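Model: Ready when you are.
Researcher: Fold this.
Model:
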Amino acid sequence: MASPELKGLVPFSRKSLELIKQHIAKKHSEENEEDDLKPNPDLNVGKKLPLLYGNLSGEMVSEPLEDVDPYYYNKKTFMVLNKNRTIFRFNAASIFCTLSPFSTIRGTTIKVLIHPLFQLLILISVLTDCILMTMINGPEWEPAVEHTLLGIYTFEILVKVIARGIGAGPFSFLGDPWNWLDFSVTLFEIVTRFSSLNLTHMLESVRTLRILKIIPLNQGLKSLVGILIHCLKKLSGAIILTLFFLSIFSLIGMGLFMGNLKHKCLWWPQENKNETLYNRTGNPHYIPETESFYYLEGEEDALLCGNRTDASQCPEGYVCVKAGKNPDRGSSNFDNFGWAFLALFRLMAQDYPEALYHQILYASGKIYMLFFVVVTFWFAFYMASLFIGILSMAYEEEKKAASEKTETKATFQQTIKALQEGNGAAENKSTQIEMKKRSPAFLSTSVDMLEESTSGHNEELKKSRKKCPLCWYKIAKTFLIWDCSPCWQKLKNFVHRIIMDPFTDLFLIICIILNILFLALEHYPMSEDTWSLLFFGNMVFIGIFTAEMILKIIAMHPYQYFQVGWNIFDSIIVLFGLAEFYLANIAGLGDFRQLRILRIFKLGKYWPTFRKLMLTLSNSLMALRDIILLLFTFVFFSAVFGMRLFGESYKECVCRIDKDCRLPRWHMHDFFHSYLIVFRILCGEWIETLWDCMEVAGPSSCICFYMMVILIGNLLILYLFLGFVSAFNSYRDATPEEDSEAKNIQLAMARIKKGLNYVLLKILCKKQNVPKKTVDHVNDTYVKENTSDHTLSELSNTQYFPKEKEKSSNTEKNTTTENESQSLIPSPSVSESVPIASGESDIEYADNKEIQSRSGHEDSKGKIKQSSSSECSTVDIATSEEEMVNEHERLKHLITDRRRSSPSQISKEYKKKKIWQNIRKTCCKIVENSWFKCFIGLVTLLSTGALAFEDIYIDQRKTIKILLEYADMIFTYIFILEMLLKWMAYGFKAYFCNAWHRLDFIVVIVFCLSLIGKTREDLKPLTSIKFLRAIRVLSQFERMKVVVRTLIKTTLPTLNVFLVCFMIWLTFSIMGVHLFAGKFYACTDQPNGEKLPVSEVLNRSQCESHLYNESLSWENAQLNFDNVGNGLLSLLQVATFNGWIDIVYSAIDSLDVDMQPSFESNLYMYCYFIAFVILGLFLPLSMLIGVIITNFNKHKIKQGGSNMFITAKQKKQYRWLKRLMYDDSPKPIPRPGNKLQGFIFDLVTSRVFNVIIMVLICLQAIIIMMESDEQSPQMYAVIFWINSTFVILYTAECVLKLISFHCYYFTSIWNILDFMVVVFSITGLFLPLTVGYYLVPPSLVQLVLLSRIIHILRRGKGPKVFHDLMLPLLLSLPALMNISLLIFLVMFIYAIFGMYNFAYVKKEAGINDVSNFETFCSSMICLFQVTIFAGWDGLLNAVFNSKWSDCDPDKINPGTQVRGDCGNPSVGIFYFVSYIFIIWLIIVNMYIAVIMEFLSIVSKKKTRSLSEYDFRKFFQVWERFDPDRTQYIDSCKLSDFAAALDPPLFMAKPNKGQLVAMDLPMAVGDRIHCLDVLLAFTKRVVGKDAGTEKTLSEIESAFALANPIKITYEPITTTLKRKQETVSATIIQRAYKNYRSRQNDKNTADISILDSGQELQDTKKGVCLGKVKEKSAIQSQI
């Protein structure tokens, strides 16, 4: 289709409208013509008209113009431009109460509507309304302002209705959804204000929707909303799948935990112990439940209990009964589907999961930890990965489209710039003609850059060159450029040499680091000397920085100095420092001290990584400004909406949530607190505030509001997060060559190094004056010793040993090899030049054929080149073990004894060396043997597993303890023996050059030390390092090695980014020390831990003066900001949102040092934590993940795009899984010959039957949803019979399939699953009748029947989107298994470490009967909490108890010799922080692995590549059309064959035209060969690119290999030629038929003419005769 020419600005007239109507009518008549035009994005509504369309004269402003976009030429539209050239588009149709575009009234309203002042008025009105809506008690003039604003909104609607029409088209008033919202709100407000209806509260809530008017007023926000709606459409499949699994797990939770959370410990007198508990209300000794439950100290809810052995047990005197309500005000339970769904949604969102986790384990047993593990993995990991993957795919598509548009614009900008700078008008004219010839798509991507075009370019260029008035340049030249005198120039040059010297930069960076250290040394309490030292240091640094500024100003002139951004930053720091010095003692101005932290960022001047990250951040902030503004708008709207909706409820019903009837910390009565609640919801902490909201306002409205904030808010945050990650994904580490400061630092360090080398050389030269004979003797001795110590591989390629040359070369080689072997990741050079034993090759390129050929197998014969010799190997490089040892001994013998040895001595020496050779050969065979490796692996697992038995009960299990002691000795001896064998086989260098061997050596040392620790009491602490034994598992299993290597590859390059993030955290920690140091102390009552109010205790002195009350103490919070270390730990808890609420409470209640905290006295300290969450958590997290993804992709490309977390063997499993997932066509089951069986076979294989079964499965799930706890007996009976009916139906289905399928029934795994469901359902239905319902719960049958719902995920049974979304998980299973093994190993190691250090810690805070470190299982429960970042603050608080007031160091622990229940804070901090950091890195890589797998699947679908599955399906379909396997089919069958294929090879009918166009060769009999069809179809799918021919040749060669006996043939024609022949024959036949038809018609015409002539003559004769007769008759009458 020809591209339309560029259209100028033409007024819209009646003639224009008539032409449009005629064009539309013409389009309707031409039905076959396709219109493929699309709207020009640069001519959308709200964009500015490019200057390419000409100048805008005054007559055209605010006047109707013909639409310049060809797309709208047939839409009956016209456009109007305002003074700013902004495009407005209107409908020209005069229908449905729409005035004519030529109407004066409509023209006037259009002018008003598009005027910038009118839009500014609306924006100001909306902002004013937003401010008024945040006020609880507004000023007196507020009603008048509200009425005025209502009038403005009404006037706006009237103007829009008249200007646009009501419903005349897409640009009418009702064509914009935002107008619907505006009209509804305005109409509701008018009706409410001017009627007698009392809807004031509802009006306040509805009015908040006006805040959303900001979105349509900003074109960027409006388009972004459209993008997000598009993303939601793509997320629809994932949302449905999430709801499906939430429902399924909710039903499972109902079956497992229904009513369990009502089990509580009830006090029961001993004399009534034999009475039945269910009839307790009739017992005279019964005590009311609320008073008789057992409560733990500080807990609001009663202690939960269970009847299982692994559940919580009640204390003595209490019994476990089902009574009272559920915990958390009745909101945490699984008693019906609604509450269960909310609980699962809470677990999915990972909000306070540790509370529900503990409640279930208390009431149901520790075994149900598996339920939480599965739920956490499925929702918090996999479903989250799916959402991130889909959103990232959508974001990358949008980014790619924008980048393509930008590139095209940049290209076109260069063309326009060349045009503008040209001198000839001819060139300008030719360029315009060229632009007219371009397509509209090209113009649409380039018009933005044309805004700098033509007429106004020269003026703009001058303005850009002169940003300031001319007078300012004169002033700057006069006063800011100092060229006073030659003396000044000399001084300036001298200062310039000093200040620009590399050593000056080095001195400055040392001062900056020292200044940061001084800032970090501030703490509380601080001695006078320390304070003086820090104060003096601060003055010194201020002086140094001031001197730097002054000297640079002198050296560079003020004009040049302030042209550099870092110099401006330095001057600001100096200004603040001097201001702090002079204003520090003035009241209210001491906050200048906070500005010291800016000095930390001076380090960025000399840190390229920091500067590059900050530049990337600033650019991304500008690019993402629309999404940031939209997120802020949504948060503001949610806060105001929540305040208006629930504010009064919090005030009126406050007594329901607070015993003192005082508003709690989290409420929505005012805007600031409502904003804090919304912010907390977006941080993932919402369930506790939701409980309060449901108490005061009801569940329905609160849940709807919270779900809205959670879903929409998280979508916006996730999209923003992906934007930042994508920005940092393109980050590359900066090099020092890119900036002068880094070069200066390197130059200074090089000079220092050169100077040190010179000094050392001078010192060493004095020691070189030794006798020459001594030197020769030393060299000779060295050669002898070095020769005797050489490894076999060093000697196997050397014939002679010159002394000095060999010494130097060996030194160089050893240095290189040792440096390269320091990491677990061998470099490629090492992997090629350091061959070691084949079984010990731990490098990642072990599957490389070139490396394997060098690995020294027995079948490797021939000579090895000298370049492949190794400094770290003794076995693999020789052709065989015997030859290696012989060569080694022969060379050693020749060097040491060639002058003194006799032949007999040589023979004896040779025999001795032969024995040594055989010993080493035997050792090598042993350690390389696969059975030996399996044995060592088994011993490693046993030694690791034995650690799990050493819990607090080990002293009570004497037999197990003795067995473990003997086992430790046996394991130690085995590992020592293995180490000795490897030393013998590989030599010391080869052994210790391998990082995994070094790890094994460390573990052997650990074994030995632990055994030594058992021998002496004073060495007993050495036994606590036994947990390191488990590290040996890493070196024994390749799956874990692969994960460790990948983690190192993706993490080590990010160390610079980690340091930048740490610097940000250090800044916030120092700021926290300045703000809160010493202010978290409070006077508390020890028994209950409550803080006394300010009305009772005002400060520390009053607290300590209460001598009569010994329970009062002035205590500090466990987590505080008294020093930088505590500040960093507090910030870590804020970052993980664990325990951060207590830290925030302490901050906002703080007053001053030694002052008693007061409730929310420092309320706006919330801003500090909000700033940290945004700047210290969100942005650094985006940086880290973006850089990790960059490294991940880089190394993945190096490995050819394969998964980095799987081994070579697992790659085969990956391909097998891929085939399994794509293969949905199992072997067909033969139809039985018996009529009855055949009828049943047709029945059970029909689609209707399968649909009925799926409906039954869904009905079964719906029936379970209807259940609830404590339902009526009638309901129980109904559900029992319904379940029985389902069992009968499923049994009938199974029997019918068994009858029709016979033994083929069990060939399908799905049939086996159905058969097991039937068996277990029947068993579960009848077994309770014999053994009772206590052993077999009634819910068992329902859960078994529910398992059939998995059929929905089956390909072909359920929605296809489910299968597509499950595919990444199944294909990632090998990688996930490897990562999960590493996570389990880390958890195991830390669990053992926790058992050794925290087993006897006092049970309080997070350590209780369920979560503790007493046993291995309990430790794993604790670590699972920490793994999901839930509740680790409580565990740390318990470990912090190390004072006499908190614990008892002399407490006797029964059954063991260990005394005390105190913790170790320093060990606890290291334990939890290191675990969180390691687990975070592993989990991030897990997310990346699954997301990358998802994106790779999507990208393969987009690239239209063909897989092995597609080819296999092709041949399966071909086999149906060619049952005799002749490799040919008739051409008449080709259309059906193409329609029978699966996508992407599928070709829907009608497809004969496409098949003919493929020009397929045809053999005799109009037959087509299989390979020709396959190649043609492949070319159609893949397309025409550089790799197509290669792909086709590979397919052809593969077909030839698969079909060696290929039938050769000579094609006689092609489908295209045959079609042409057919068409030609048809044309000839038609022509001949037409000719014959014409001849026949001609002959018939001649005959008819003769006949008609004769008839005419006869007629004439008859007429004449009639006339004669008539005349004669008349005459006769006369």
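Researcher: Now this one.
Model:
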Amino acid sequence: MAAAAAAAAAAVGGPQPPQAELPAPGPGLDKAATAAHLKAALSRPDNRAGAEELQALLERVLSAERPLAAAADGEEAAAAGGGGGAGAAEEEALEWCKCLLAGGGGYDEFCAAVRAYDPAALCGLVWTANFVAYRCRTCGISPCMSLCAECFHQGDHTGHDFNMFRSQAGGACDCGDSNVMRESGFCKRHQIKSSSNIPCVPKDLLMMSEFVLPRFIFCLIQYLREGYNEPAADVPSEKDLNKVLQLLEPQISFLEDLTKMGGAMRSVLTQVLTNQQNYKDLTSGLGENACAKKSHEKYLIALKSSGLTYPEDKLVYGIQEPSAGTSTLAVQGFSGATGTLGQLDSSDEEDQDGSQGLGKRKRVKLSSSTKDQSIMDVLKHKSFLEELLFWTIKYEFPQKMVTFLLNMLPDQEYKVAFTKTFVQHYAFIMKTLKKSHESDTMSNRIVHISVQLFSNEELARQVTEECQLLDIMVTVLLYMMESCLIKSELQDEENSLHVVVNCGEALLKNNTYWPLVSDFINILSHQSVAKRFLEDHGLLVTWMNFVSFFQGMNLNKRELNEHVEFESQTYYAAFAAELEACAQPMWGLLSHCKVRETQEYTRNVVRYCLEALQDWFDAINFVDEPAPNQVTFHLPLHRYYAMFLSKAVKCQELDLDSVLPDQEMLMKLMIHPLQIQASLAEIHSNMWVRNGLQIKGQAMTYVQSHFCNSMIDPDIYLLQVCASRLDPDYFISSVFERFKVVDLLTMASQHQNTVLDAEHERSMLEGALTFLVILLSLRLHLGMSDDEILRAEMVAQLCMNDRTHSSLLDLIPENPNPKSGIIPGSYSFESVLSAVADFKAPVFEPGGSMQQGMYTPKAEVWDQEFDPVMVILRTVYRRDVQSAMDRYTAFLKQSGKFPGNPWPPYKKRTPLHPSYKGLMRLLHCKTLHIVLFTLLYKILMDHQNLSEHVLCMVLYLIELGLENSTEEESDEEVSVCGPERCHDSWFPGSNLVSNMRHFINYVRVRVPETAPEVKRDSPASTSSDSLSSLQNSGTAQVFSLVAERRKKFQEIINRSSSEANQVVRPKTSSKWSAPGSAPQLTTAILEIKESILSLLIKLHHKLSGKQNSYYPPWLDDIEILIQPEIPKYNHGDGITAVERILLKAALQSRMNKRIIEEICRKVTPPVPPKKITAAEKKTLDKEERRQKARERQQKLLAEFASRQKSFMETAMDVDSPENDIPMEITTAEPQVSEAVYDCVICGQSGPSSEDRPTGLVVLLQASSVLGQCRDNIEPKKLPITEEEQIYPWDTCAAVHDVRLSLLQRYFKDSSCLLAVSIGWEGGVYVQTCGHTLHIDCHKSYMESLRNDQVLQGFSVDKGEFTCPLCRQFANSVLPCYPGSNVESNLWQRPSNKSIQDLIKEVEELQGRPGAFPSETNLSKEMESVMKDIKNTTQKKYRDYSKTPGSPDNDFLFMYSVARTNLELELIHRGGNLCSGGASTAGKRSCLNQLFHVLALHMRLYSIDSEYNPWRKLTQLVEEVNSQQGNEEQQPEVPILYHDVTSLLLIQILMMPQPLRKDHFTCIVKVLFTLLYTQALVALSVKCSEEDRSAWKHTGALKKNTCDTEKSYEVLLSFVISELSKGKLYHEEGTQESAMVSPISWSPESMEKYLQDFCLPFLRITSLLQHHLFGEDLPSCQEEEEFSVLSSCLGLLPTFYQTEHPFISASCLDWPVPAFDIISQWCFEINSFTERHAEQGKALLIQEARWKLPHLLQLPENYNTIFQYYHRKTCSVCTKVPKDPAVCLVCGTFVCLKGLCCKQQSYCECVLHSQNCGAGTGIFLLINASVIIIIRGHRFCLWGSVYLDAHGEEDRDLRRGKPLYICKERYKVLEQQWISHTFDHINKRWGPHYNGL
């Protein structure tokens, strides 16, 4: 193409064709002139000449004679040369077009002019995948409605049900389109129908466009033709296609821009695209232009290769010459029958994926009727639009083309034309899609287009009528599936004629069919279209044909021998296919069958459905028995039939019998759904375990919430229908036979089961009974209203577990098509929810897991609505049933309704719809009664394989029968005896009420010869005549369910057709003969003498464990029989259930009542006495043993807990400072005892020694939390507009940085580094869990961790580990200094030395050089931990000296570590010490040990005694003038500029450890004098000139009074007079007003200022004293903090009285005369301010009052953050990041994982976390609403602080509901940040490899 463009360039610049009278097209000016000239020429009435001229020019400019063949070769060359020439020519052509369109004017003005004529009634903004859009269900008419963010926010949707979503496939904004949404939802721009007031478009404005555009589009089409090469057999040609598309990018973008000019330009484009004449003239390929011919040929080849024909005009549509592209069809037999197997080879069927490799299953091809041919294989293009779409499909829907085609949609005329074109190409789209290698992307693009077209009902209807849309869709779907059919193996493998889809094929596995099915569902949602579908019989037949492809797919065969080798995972494809391709269209159709008038539609569907089913039974050769050991979960035909029946009865008042088939068909219909139910029980009984986990997966998916109402619900409903119409005895025996438990139902204690292993019997019996209970009590389709159903579903889900709102929405099956997102009556959802559940707001345990808002059932729901049947039906996991029962039990205990273990409650049912009354006959048939009687008897006799669950279900069935008994039963016995019924001898009638009291005396059973019954056989059994006499006395014969069922079946079949006989008999006889290996069975007769009633009463005795426990309640209280609803029977266990049943039986008939009383009168002997008592005894023993075991366990646990407690206490106290006051062991005191430590690894305890030191488990981390303190109270807000920005210059870190650099400018570096502290940013914080270990133990522990590579939560190489005891995260060990644990008071007695002596001692001690102790293990460890501390933070946070690597750096760093830890502890205590006590921070503090390590290292650097600040503080220096001598050297920092807290730490760490208390107090007293002077100086600088002179004066007056050194007025006046000698107060002039605050200073406010100035120092000092000497901190009120702390530190004289107001100056204790030393200090300042008055003043005012650090304040609503940040461009790369994030500490906007902003392999978030938080970063991920924490080399997802209205997170904004800030969560986050506990509290950490 590049070469082609070059040719064009040549053509433009080359010799001109003779007929052009134009000047040669030169630079831009000429273009404009030419364009203007042509425009004029064309405006003349006779414009032929102009038109020709223009054509010639366009021929030249847009020349298509560009040898594309050469392009392929020239490609590389062009690419290598930067493609200069080519690109230039392309652009040249585009420039020409722009000029010509504008007709000589400027192109931009032209655009603006056209825009003015835009009647913008529609928005129509087109977006691509990942765009953020909105959907409002309240305003939408179509479920697919969507709005762009702008239209959404400008419309009013308050209180609507809307959500934000990320577009999957792309979409377009529907604002202004009243077909898709209600007008009330339109935004302000699109509300006004503005077409009326838009003026007419002037003719000449767009005249040029009409001439130029056809050529331009034709040129584009030629490019597409030229560029397309049929891909070779296997090579995917995406590469080539993409190349062509890249070259076309500018042209398509140009078209796209044209569409954005508005309506006027769109209508011109529509004319051009749809005009057939233009197309014919330009593209016919006739005429002399060789190039055009060639292009036309390529077009024809492309058509052919797509398996399409191009009907030449002479041919009529129907008759085609069989050209290579046409499919030759084998039309066999009758049309469209799925039964015929033919071969269909059309050229696109030779698929490249050798699918014969799919095992033995061969692919089947169907022949098809000719009818479809025109749909499938003919395409004729009549306009540019059609061919453009053709190429768009050929090139697999390039995004740009799609966007262009969609941008045109607001033009109504275009919309219709385009939709028709789209439909015309539908078959071709399907073929391309099937072949595509990128089917996912392509599917999305297809749906992007089709959803815009088919969501519009008007349009869909029009296309359906004019273009046979439905025919096309159904045919295309049918064709698509036909390509992957295989022979069905269900039932009769050899002779089956049925074909099903093969779920292993890519087509199904990758959901390739999805776009087509989704379009189909979309158009069926329109009533007018669906009606046409339901009326068209041919379509229905084809559709049922399509559905039958899925009937019986994915057949499972039970593995009986070994485990299946390969577990296929195709089952999910099968479920998805049935749901999407069958069920969803079904729901779509059902939604239009709601009223009586639509009966006809239902009849049609039911009719064709039954026909398809009949065909299916014939095809699989089905007679009456399902093949054993196989099951398919896919019966879509059954389900269509069931759901349409249900609708017919529920909504259309159809008579059910009129749409039911004959009995025989019903029998067939029930077989497969019943088979599924039995298989479910088998799967849960682990009988399918050899098939692998996937079979469990199928069983779960079948009942899972998204599938259940299209799968299990219709199946059960169909079985209910069959049961209500078939003979009940037949049905019941079928159930037990399918569940394989027939042999178990015998009175004998032993039996043989030929079809089931003993270990599965019990669970299969439970399964069968549970199924019957569900079948008989479920009313979902038998009479419940929609709201009742919703309520029942919701209650069932809530009973299993508390649920969040979103999971409830997800778990409750949506009725119609889940895709639509509209839940029927979604308004009722909320109201039902509030009726049945209480909302539990999320609670927060700090350090606990984040909880979501949950809904929990109300008490009355548990009381009245808990329905175990519904719960069993809806549980995916069996454990959920247990969970529901546990919660029910807990409720009963709590509310005091029932203390024991309750049974599932019996719940009253909704009345049955009259059509289904027959269902209740199941409860009144002898077969069921015999089963119930037998089971009750077996339970009573303790036969094996029975469980409480079985009894529970038996009683449930009896109770159901009593509740639903027919009323006609009279008290007199009515004996109805049919002659040939075999079980008449069991029960006289079929009514349960009367059968309950019927006594059965003897039963004849078949038992194995080994059974105990054989021995004590009744003698009568020898002679046959005695037997007959027995029989009359009520012996029941051997009862065989199977034989019964056979008989019934036979009768039914005989009634309907006689010839079926021959087929049936032989099969049955062979199947059920028992295998020969079984031991011989013999007949025995058992004496029973029981009725159901007597069995129940005995059961009551058995359950209660007492004789005669049952006493009829009505004998005491006759009332009971009158008002039967008695609450005390609602909840309880088996005993309650039995009592309730007996009461109901008595209520139903007087006779029963009498018999119950009679039975109770006879003192019932125990049935088999030995047995029961043994069992009883067993249970009693068990109970007793259990009780004892429980007590033992309790005792053990208590003991364990107490041991653990004492252990924890000792472990914690090891380092608690009280017992840790080390001292020099000079005095031999008797009480000296060394501190003892426990090692948590080896468990030994002992002191820490030089050679075997013990250490504390510590976590070192760099922290910048201190640096985030600000001095104003207003918290900073997260910026959410461009105006709000955060500047960090008011943070603590910034202020300290400025101060240090200012000092370094003017003073000696080494002195500067002693005057301040660092570590506000990147300071090292040390925390411990309080456990200790031997350092050598720790080393071996680390070794073992290093070898065990499983634990990847932390990096062992970096020294990280978890504390072996409490598993807290740690990364170093801090050695404990060996020392004695002395009784503290010895060393804390106030010594009587004067302060002067102490000062001397301090100076001497500091002067002693601190030689590093000899190389012991301890000293080595001290060194290594110091290294760890240094390496914890980055170099930039350690080196502040001008000379890198100077020792001053280390010195500064070390005492700053102490400072950081003290300051942070202060913050953890809330910023002051008012609470006192040893708070948790103190308990786990390791400051003491840290101090030893630091002191040891600090003593290595002795300060030169001359420079030691101690002397400046405590001595008067004589030779003041000597300093003037060395001018060139920078001076030292004046003492008044020193930071006093830093001085304190330096002084203390320079002393030999352990320190004596009186030395400590001495240092504090001296430093306090300096601090106080600083406060006075700062105060004097702060106030105004007048104030100063006034104070100077008053102070001078008081100077002669006593105690002047302790009066702040005197001192202040002295300071002022001293400093006035210098220039400090001068040259203020203009700035004065800015500096001075207009406060009038009263004595109180001055006192407060001085106290506030000194407080931070006092707090830190008190903390230090607390840690070093273990003194408790007193608690106090805030206002007395100063006085309490100063007295605690020994600054206040003890005799100080507290009556008169407290004055801070009274704490002063001057070591030398105050005035002399002050004047000496002031002199230094004066000599500095001589030169730098401004800086001198700035350095004196120190802001000491920092507020606590906080994270940024977040807005209430998340949307404000999202809207601002998700489109914000990154400041580094100026792109919109894919994953934007924002730092919650400083508000910086960063790209998460953005490669664009990567620096030296660090991504931006990681980099920012190092710069902003010294390795800790807290980021809010904008697109996910989640907070992510980065800590060093690890990261974790913290959770979200934004929750929706239901208290839930919405991670990744999937639900898109509005989110609101959760203050508690944010507080927890902030707390973890401040307390540095992210590592301990959050568990799921992973390495980020610098990639975030």
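Researcher: Key takeaway?
Model: Residues 1169-1213 form the longest helix (45 residues).
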